[in-house]
Amino acid sequence: MPKKLSEDIKKEIESLVKEINYHNYRYYVLDSPVITDEQYDKLYRRLVELEEMSGYVLPDSPTGRVGAPPLEKFAKVRHSMPMLSLDNAFNYDELREFDRRIKRLLGAAEEIEYTVEPKYDGLAIELTYAGGLLDRASTRGDGYEGEDVTRNIKTIRAAPLKIEPDECPGVIDIRGEVYMELEEFRKLNRHREDEGLPAFANPRNAAAGSVRQLDPAVTAKRKLYLACYGAGVSEGVDFGSQSDFIGWLKRKLFPTPAVFETASGIESAIDAVKRIEQMRDGFGFETDGAVIKVNDFGLQRKLGSKTREPRWAIAYKFQAHVATTRIVDIQGSVGRTGVITPFAVFEPVRIGGVTVSKSTLHNWDEIKRKDIKIGDTVVVERAGDVIPHVLMVVREKRTGRERDFPIPRHCPACGSNVVREEGEVAVKCIALGCPAQVREKIIHFASRNGMDIEGLGEKNVELLHSRGLIKGFEDIYRLRKEDFLALPRFAEKSASNMINAIERSKTATLARFLYSIGIIHVGEYAAKQLARNFAVLEDLYNVTPERIMAIKQMGEKIANAVAAFFSDKKNMETLETLKLLGLKIQNPDFTARKKKLPLEGITFVITGTLPRPRKEVEDMIEALGGRASSSVSAGTGYLVAGENPGSKLAKARQLGVKTITYGELEKMLREGQGSPTLF
Ligand code: IVH
Fold first, then answer.
1. Distance from the alpha carbon of residue 66 to the mean position of ligand 1, in angstroms
2. Does the CB atom of residue 315 touch ligand 1 within 6 A?
3. Deepest of 40, 167, 218, 580, by most Cβ within 10 A of its Cβ?
């Protein structure tokens, strides 16, 4: 019951809900925020405070997106109209055949108007709005019956909780795809590595796994997106066509497909498909095709559906880069946290112009699920910018001589017994001095996102480690030029370059350093949060878990791991040694936090080759408060076009996003920064 509900409080709550929902839309749908995270947090905290005080919580309050307790199991939901699948076309002639069939069925002589949109590779869901409010969200399931995932879908900020304004008294089903962007997928897998968990095989599995979580708090942590492209029942609204419907969705603040074109006749639809295929690598999410639909809903109804697919739509599948080869061996590789990941060794095969001789098998359950054995002939795919993976086993090619690969009981690197927690997929080596783990820790320390020591990659670390020149990452700072000169392929110049790169890394940022030293559970994001909150490394010595938990988004697991790291005698000795060896860690994140940054709220996307490494440029943008994103959208502030720009340039032009050169960006950064020391 409301404890105290004055008109003023009611009004303030109502306006806060509207305001926060609008900012969610700016951020998650348009990718173009107009306020800072801090300002957003302030509004949100005020709303929580007022809601708690008054007990007045609106049905579309953003606070309802989080905080639901875990479930035992999902309830089943019957779809009012079946969620159909799509027929596939693998070449343009099959699309022409689709067009002929439609004309025949409709008895039409004139050209048909089609719509063309990307096919999202995610998880299909249905959002049911009743009286304008999001009432239920369900998975597709078998098309007729899915699972109730309402509480999880509510954590996806791009999904409107209410259809604005209130003019939808009936029930409306909006259908779309939940997906994870590639960047987020890679980040999530890196985090899982940090946490000693097995990786997800692809963004689709990651998205599906995140939606089908019994605990909504887990879903809330995964950055998921939504693209809406279809309707189920729609009482009280009448859409004439797919393009009308997409326009309506946009006006009602729903996220819609990144590209949506109408085309008169199949040949112009094919041109649109070609354009989408060209843009594909610049989207930042996975698409495996384009969907062509008859635009007119009246014609759609006339055409009707077969058992599983409508007659009015078809999915054109993009050329997959696939090849068949044989698995000659399955081996385990040991990561820096001790997780043993299986990988397949192939008879080398060329796929899309690249020779592939191995690929990760991700985790042991994946081998079982796909029934992969040594000796099997398999189909391997190398898609877009995703690493190669085994699609499936060609069972007909089995000879009976294939062998199962048992989950290892000993570490392939050091031979110690491995552990596998009850019910866990990950298999782990927990030996402290395991040489593979030590080597991987050093590789991680020196890596691009870590201390960024150029030239000290996997191969050179392996060489130095195997020769006993580095036994831990601190030894990197003991290396002399002669040590490199003694290695194969090193000459005077390359050896000096290495020493210079090592020297440069001594002034790395605290955020990078905290990530590099490999504290369990501390990925790049957590490291940055720590750096924002602790001025110098020494402030973390003797830190308590409580102090860390007081920081936004830092949970108990991270807090305990950080506190444990800094109370370990051996770790502290390593840190002291690093200091003695001349490390002078800088912390721009701490001071930067204090004042408003010049590029705050501006999103930059880079395409083509720049005169300096992309990561470095992105770091500079972020250091000034800007956001670096990998995909162009209407909310992108600037597209920075380097040499040989990719399809992002065309997309930026299409969306009217301003394009600047690297020189212009540099000028902006210099002006924003006020001093040239970052360069
Ligand atoms: S239309 C009855 N449009 O692809 C029409 N589906 O392989 C079916 N999908 O189950 C949906 N992007 O999950 C449509 N732009 C798009 C899509 C799309 C992805 C998925 C959807 C569907 C599956 C069929």
1. 28
2. yes
3. 40
CA–chain centroid gap for 35, Å, is 23
Counting atoms of ligand 1 from 1, which one is nearest the CA of 257? 15
Residue 598: what are its φ and ψ, rounded to 5°?
A: -65, -30
pLDDT band with cut points at 50, 70 and 90 for residue 53:
confident
**Residues 6 or more apart from 123 whose CB is under 8 A from it?**
139, 140, 177, 178, 179, 204, 207, 208, 211
Determine if ligand 1 sits within 6 Å of the CB of residue 229: yes
Tell me the CA–centroid distance for residue 85 and ligand 1, in Å. 6
User: Which CATH number characterizes residue 299's domain?
Assistant: 3.30.470.30
For residue 247, give both structure tokens.
């326009």
Query: Would the pTM count as exceeding 0.90?
Result: no
Mark whether 119 is an active-site residue: yes
Helix 569-580 to helix 556-566 angle (10° resolution) is 70
Q: Is 314 in the pocket of ligand 1 (CB under 6 A)?
A: no
Task: Give the separation between CA 572 and CA 580, rounded to whole angstroms.
Answer: 12
243 in the same domain as 348: no
Reply yes or no on whether the pLDDT at 603 is more than 60.
yes
Indicate which residue of 4, 18, 42, 119 is catalytic.
119
Decide: 259 in ligand 1 pocket, CB within 6 A: no
350 and 296 in one domain? no
Is residue 300 one of the residues assigned to a domain? yes
Q: What is the pLDDT of residues 467-513, one digit of tens each?
A: 999 999 999 999 999 999 999 889 999 999 999 999 999 999 999 99
Rounded Cα distance, 430 and 327, in Å: 29
Domain ranges, residue 653 = 603-674
pLDDT at position 399, please? 95
Contacts of 547 (CB under 8 A, 6+ apart): none
- Quote the ligand 1 centre to 644 CA distance (angstroms): 33
Q: Return the ligand 1 atom nearest residue 121 CA.
A: 19
Tell whether 157 and 269 lie within a shared domain: yes
Pocket test for ligand 1, best of 119, 123, 126, 254 (most atoms within 8 A of CB): 119
**Phi-psi group of 615: left, alpha or beta (phi > 0 → left; psi -120 to 50 → alpha; rest → beta):** alpha
Closest to 113 (Cα-Cα) out of 254, 269, 284:
269
Q: Ligand 1 center to residue 405 CA distance, Å?
A: 37
User: Do residues 380 and 370 make contact, with C-beta atoms less than 8 angstroms apart?
Assistant: no
- In this predicted structure, the answer to whether residue 679 has a pLDDT above a threshold of 50 is no
